TrEMBL record:
GO cellular component, one term: nucleus
Similarity-based family: Belongs to the DDB1 family.
Cellular compartment(s): Nucleus
InterPro entries, A to Z: Beta-prop_RSE1/DDB1/CPSF1_1st, Beta-prop_RSE1/DDB1/CPSF1_2nd, Quinoprotein_ADH-like_sf, RSE1/DDB1/CFT1, RSE1/DDB1/CPSF1_C, WD40/YVTN_repeat-like_dom_sf
Name of this protein: DNA damage-binding protein 1
Entry annotated with the keyword Nucleus: yes
Keywords recorded for this protein, A-Z: Nucleus
Ranges for domain RSE1/DDB1/CPSF1 second beta-propeller: 410-717
């Protein structure tokens, strides 16, 4: 896997998801996976997740990808215990599928699927509507204005041939099936040409394939009415939700006119979703656009509604869906904030975040990154471990999210304890499987923490009487025979497990001991002058086994046994001469002497075994790690590899997970790392904690499989994750973040935040945020109706100060496009934002880029370059140097060198060149297709460019520099096309995985992107041979594994553009999510694919895991 990209071009791209979509679009409750248990089914745009409510919260049952964007989802049946329902889904590309759950195979089963698109028709203005008759007699779809599609179902629920019925009402707000009707009957809420809202019912004649009658209708409902709630039989009828009023409507055989009951909503509100509580339709939960949850009660006598009541329950995230589960527990799905699991109480016993009493208790929150409007890729610790800080959410649920990849530490105890020089754990006897004592040593003392109390589960300071507490402990451990050993600068002490001093050994002449290591039967001691001693501990006595003297001082040593052994035949010694010596523990004779090849002293050595392969690891004083393969018999070292883990000395410590019985190594440094092996390859994973100086395993009854970690100021005890994953930190803003930029020089972020107080009132602020604590340091308020559309951090030629530059536009209701805007230049002075310059411009500043010591701004249809020019009063101002016209809206701009890539709102991409000698910007090439761009990126220096557009596609274009004619050279040719199914708002080069320069791994340039559904994706440019392997694997998986609901992967990833009127197969892009799904297949499925590819299954797994490790 080492061939370079053909021609150096990034034409072969691998698209994979690092963080799955988290925006909840639909939810349903019912018996689906079991006839006895109630499930929650959640759609997150392109994924389907199924949960079951348990005493500890929501328990995941399954999580599957859907080859399409879920447009409608309905669960039919399963209301009665003993029966299971079926799930009906349509996608935005007009795919239809009916799903059931097979309990035996624990998989989704496709009952029916098909394409429900029509050749003619305008897509429904308010989006698709999909509904199912309560008795599963018919499925109704409103996909196009003026058409209602009916899919009849037989008594067994099998779908029959669909047909269309002409719908006179063109501007439909909502459609629902009525309950308790002899024939399938729908209620249509619609708006006429004069903006008046009416409701009308139609009875569907399945045999006649048309509407056969209209039982009742009601004109002139409230103008803000938008949703229908069908009320179950025997009461029947509908509830219509407006902005100011809620109306119940029905007409029975006893009524001459439509029966109507109404109630005012306490506060004018836009109800966006509802959820039924009772099967008889007595109570409903209503969620509005501000995140307020209401309870609507229909007071009825079993036949007729007598009264409507409404009460405000409290605040939640802004909901997109509300589903009542059981016992007062409700799922609130959100597209703008975190989804929540809440519990409703009968009294106002809880206090919300605004200090108001509420009926709502939040049980659990589910992180949602969407919509990601912008993000910054940063390395806050300056260690090469990238983090993404996203502008997430909307309205009151807006926040910053700090996303970091790595292994997490679940902190179970934190003690303020500065100055720790070493950590050691002790069991209370040979038979014990858990640790009882934690020995913490300092420069001149040793303190012991132990489990005390009647239950033995309280960690407190204690003592072991045989230990020397007045000295620094260099090494401490359990010895076979129920003994402890403690080594200090003065000597070694052998102590019984009940605290009695059994024996003591001191070096001759009172020489100082510099370092020591031990295992259950051996003690290795280094004293000054390069002297090395090996001691044994047997029958309560310390015995000198062997001694040796080296020409150089000893810097570090190790005698860790391999695997489960209690002794080691060899030891590894690091010398000040930058050499590593392997010596026999029996006589300390030199087996092997190896130069590290570095001029940095080794600070830690470790003998260890991964997957039964012996290794020698050497940590250097500058944060570099050297690994060798070790031949235990001959002592030969081979396959030397070097990589940089951090910048400070490394301390190496083995630990073992008792749950998985896997040995790993913790490399403590300023960039803590866990080292483990997978498929005979060492894997390095960042640990999401700050600098760790010392570490030891501390697995006790109270803290199973835990580690003790010492930093500069504190001691942490915590469990460690078994797997590497994304860790997300939330910083609530109370408003919607629009743009973000990082400034390493001042350790700050600038964030643009909008606060929407009402439909006509909003404020916009530029906030200065500390990049460590994320506290707001200061903020600058913009003018009325001034909105920020761009933000960057930059330096100007001739000025060493780093500035934040903000671009704005004045949004007036009388203008289609802003005619005025400003460019504001700020500097950070004493943690304050100080405005140093402002420039009025004619239009909105859609983007800003630092460019050649100047500022490049996209202003409406113009691209303008500004110089930073000093004035006579010693202040600077922005002065226009040159500009380029030719866009409709200069929406997205990226630069590299003298090249400028422009993404236009409607006219795809164009490539410009800045000519400094002429002071001009000229167009070099353009893509002549009409694409409405949302983001652009440069994949390599001057040849391949990436674009994302509003039909949710990605595509690459290349410049044909070798073309013969000027016309060909001026054309950007399409070289790759792919349907992502996500609206991309931003691209940025970077990687969420550790960057290891070990000289062995494939070099894969990666680009991150953020989407409206909360996806963080990775686009990796692959060498041609690797790309061809992934393309073959993708094709073979599609050949053998069917998509959920019969939806086809090739159709889903095909490039579809609204202006083309056709779909084209994906080209030069491969779906990394599908490729990596190979790792989760059953063995028989994987074997069939491997046979099809004529490759070994383990080889495919190894190559896919390598790609996974390199990309996310």
């Amino acid at each position: 896997m080492s061939a370079p990209n053909e021609g150096g071009r990034c034409r072969f791209n691998y698209v994979v998801t690092a963080h799955k979509p988290t925006v909840v679009t639909h939810s349903a409750v019912g018996r689906f996976t079991s006839s006895e248990e109630t499930d929650l089914i959640v759609a997150k745009c392109t994924r389907l997740e199924i949960y079951r409510l348990s005493s500890s919260g929501l328990r995941p049952i399954m999580d599957v990808p859907i080859y399409g964007r879920v447009a409608t989802m309905s669960l039919c049946g399963g209301r009665e215990r003993g029966s299971k329902g079926r799930l009906f889904i349509t996608t935005e590309r007009y795919g239809f599928t009916a799903l059931s759950y097979d309990e035996e195979s624990e998989e989704l089963k496709t009952e029916a699927f098909g394409d429900v698109r029509d050749n003619i028709g305008r897509p429904a203005e308010n989006g698709q509507i999909g509904i199912v008759d309560e008795d599963c007699r018919s499925i109704g779809l409103q996909l196009y204005d003026g058409l209602f599609k009916v899919i009849p179902c037989d008594e067994k629920g099998k779908v029959k041939e669909a047909f269309n019925i002409r719908l006179e009402e063109l501007r439909v707000e909502d459609i629902q099936f009525l309950h308790g009707t002899a024939k399938p009957t729908i209620a249509v809420l619609y708006r006429d040409m004069k903006e008046a809202v009416h409701i009308k019912t139609y009875e569907i004649g399945v045999r006649e394939k048309e509407f056969v009658s209209s039982p009742w209708a009601q004109n002139d409902l409230e103008g803000g009415s938008s949703k229908i709630i069908p009320v179950p039989a025997p009461v029947g009828g509908v509830v219509v939700l407006g902005e100011e009023t809620i109306v119940y409507l029905n007409k029975t055989s006893d009524d001459t006119d439509v029966f109507l009951k109404a109630i005012n909503i306490p506060e004018r509100s836009s109800i966006v979703c509802y959820g039924a509580i009772d099967p008889d339709g007595s109570r409903y939960l209503l969620g509005d656009h501000d995140g307020t949850l209401y309870l609507l009660v229909l007071v009825h006598d079993g036949k007729r509604v007598n009264e409507l009541k409404i009460e405000r329950l409290g605040e939640t995230s802004i909901p997109s869906t509300v589903s009542y589960l059981d016992n007062g527990v409700v799922f609130v799905g959100s597209a703008y904030g975190d989804s929540q699991l809440i519990k409703l109480h009968s009294e106002k016993t809880n206090v919300d975040k605004d200090g108001n009493l509420s009926y709502i208790q939040i049980l659990e929150e589910f992180t949602n990154l969407g919509p990601i409007v912008d993000f910054a890729f940063v390395d806050l610790e300056r260690h090469g471990q990238g983090q993404v800080v996203t502008c997430s959410g909307a309205y009151k649920d807006g926040s910053l999210r700090v996303v970091r990849n790595g292994i997490g530490i679940d902190e179970q105890a934190v003690i303020q304890l500065p100055g720790v020089k070493g950590l050691f754990s002790l069991r209370d006897d040979d038979e014990s499987q858990v640790d009882k004592y934690l020995v913490v040593t300092f420069i001149n003392e040793t303190r012991i923490l132990g489990f005390v109390g009647d239950e033995g589960d309280t960690l407190d300071e204690t003592e072991i009487s045989g230990f020397n507490a007045e000295a620094q402990t260099l090494c401490c451990g359990n010895m076979l025979g129920n003994m402890f050993v403690q080594v200090t600068h003065a000597g070694a002490r052998l102590v019984s497990c009940d605290g009695k001093l059994l024996d003591e050994w001191k070096p001759a002449g009172g020489s100082e001991i510099l370092s020591a290591k031990c295992n259950p039967t051996q003690i290795l001691i280094a004293e000054s002058g390069g002297k090395l001693h090996c001691l044994s501990a047997m029958k309560g006595k310390l015995a000198l086994v062997a001694s040796a003297t080296f020409e150089d001082e000893i810097a570090c040593l190790d005698c860790t046994p391999m695997g489960e052994a209690t002794s080691s035949p060899v030891c590894a010694v690091g010398l000040w001469s930058m050499e590593i010596v392997l010596a026999s523990m029996s006589d300390l004779s030199v087996i092997k002497r190896e130069s590290t090849g570095e001029d940095i002293i080794p600070r830690s050595t470790l003998l260890c075994s991964f997957e039964s392969i012996p290794y020698l690891l050497v940590g250097l004083g500058d944060g570099q790690l050297i690994t060798y393969l070790l031949d235990e018999k001959s002592g030969e070292l081979s396959v030397r590899k070097k990589l940089s883990l951090g910048t400070k000395p490394i301390t190496l410590q083995t630990f073992k997970s008792h749950a998985t019985n896997v040995h790993s190594v913790f490399a403590a440094s300023d960039r803590p790392t866990v080292i483990f092996s997978n498929n005979k390859k060492l894997i390095y994973s960042n640990v999401n904690v700050q600098e760790v100086l010392h570490v030891c395993p501390f697995s006790s009854a109270a803290f199973p499989d835990a580690l003790a970690l010492a930093g500069e100021e504190d001691l942490t005890i915590g469990g460690i994750d078994d797997i590497q994953k994304l860790h997300i930190r939330t910083i609530p803003l109370g408003g919607q973040p629009r743009r973000i930029a990082h400034q390493p020089e001042t350790n700050t972020f600038a964030v643009v935040v909008e606060h929407l107080w009402s439909k006509s009132s909003q404020d916009c602020f530029v906030r200065l945020v500390d990049d460590g604590s994320f506290e707001t340091l200061s903020q600058f308020q913009l003018e009325d109706q001034e909105l920020t559309s761009s933000l960057t951090s930059c330096t100007f030629a001739g000025d060493s100060t780093t500035y934040y530059v903000v671009g704005t536009g004045i949004a007036l209701e009388t203008e289609d496009e802003p005619s005025r805007g400003r460019i504001l230049v700020f500097k950070v002075d004493d943690d304050q934002l100080v405005l140093v310059s402002e420039k009025e411009v004619r239009g909105a500043v859609y983007n800003l880029n630092a460019f050649k010591g100047k500022l490049l701004a996209g202003i409406n249809s113009k691209l303008e370059l500004f110089k930073w020019t000093p004035r006579e009063d010693e202040v600077h101002e922005l002065v226009s140097e040159c500009s380029h016209h030719g866009q409709i809206v200069t929406f997205a701009v990226k630069t590299r060198g003298d090249w400028i890539l422009v993404g236009d709102l409607m006219k795809s991409m164009s490539l410009l060149l800045y000519k400094p000698e002429e002071g001009a910007i000229d167009e070099v090439a353009r893509d002549f297709n009409a694409n409405w761009m949302t983001a652009v990126a440069m994949l390599d220096d001057d040849e391949t460019y990436l674009g994302a557009e509003n039909s949710l596609n990605l595509f690459t274009v290349s410049r044909n520099v070798n073309a013969v004619t000027d016309e060909e050279r001026s054309r950007l040719e399409i070289t790759g096309e792919y349907h992502l199914g996500e609206l991309v708002n931003a691209f940025a080069p970077g990687s969420l995985v550790m960057s290891l320069r070990d000289g062995e791994s494939l070099s894969v340039p990666t680009l991150l992107f953020g989407t409206a559904n909360g996806v963080i994706g990775v686009l990796a440019s692959l060498p041609k041979d690797v790309y061809e392997f992934t393309e073959r694997l993708q094709a073979s998986i599609n050949k053998h594994i069917q998509g959920v609901g019969g939806l086809k992967h090739a159709d889903w990833r095909s490039f579809v553009h609204t202006l083309r009127g056709r779909s084209d197969p994906a080209m030069n892009f491969v779906d990394g999510d599908l490729v990596e799904s190979f790792l989760d297949l059953r063995p028989e499925q994987a074997d069939a694919i491997a046979a099809d590819m004529k490759l070994d299954r383990t080889d495919i797994i190894s190559r896919v895991e390598e790609l996974q490790r390199l990309t996310h």
